[in-house]
TrEMBL record:
This is DUF397 domain-containing protein. Residues 6-54 form the DUF397 domain. InterPro entries: DUF397 (IPR007278). Pfam families: DUF397.
Length: 110
């Protein structure tokens, strides 16, 4: 887990730290990381991008820049193919998405 204060994971995640975590970033942006991603990548989403992600998640879709690969591996980017890549599992994504739909991250950028 990253040593930064303010990281939050969904209450739908299993025990332990392995899950998608969010934290507020400067200028209303949101940071996203997956604690089991071996690269330790942190994706920073601008406020408008985070709003678009939330809308997609609430509609049951992967956000733009998200792709599903073999073995249930999801790759997440903010929309730009040159951006940081965060990997997660389908199960961890679903736990995160359940938290988004339940309003657990509503205090993040709108």
């Amino acid at each position: 887990m990253h040593a930064h204060q303010g990281w939050q994971k969904s209450s739908y995640c299993a025990e332990g730290d392995a899950c998608i975590h969010l934290a507020p970033a400067p200028h209303g942006a949101v940071r996203l990381t997956e604690t089991s991603d071996p690269t330790g990548a942190i994706l920073t989403l601008a406020p408008a991008t985070w709003r678009t992600w939330r809308e997609a998640i609430e509609d049951g879709r992967l956000p733009e820049g998200g792709t599903a690969g073999p073995g249930g591996v999801l790759r997440l980017r903010g929309g730009d193919p040159q951006e940081v890549l965060v990997t997660t599992s389908t199960a961890q994504w679903e736990a995160f998405a359940a938290g988004v739909r339940a309003g657990e991250f509503d205090h993040m950028a709108r």
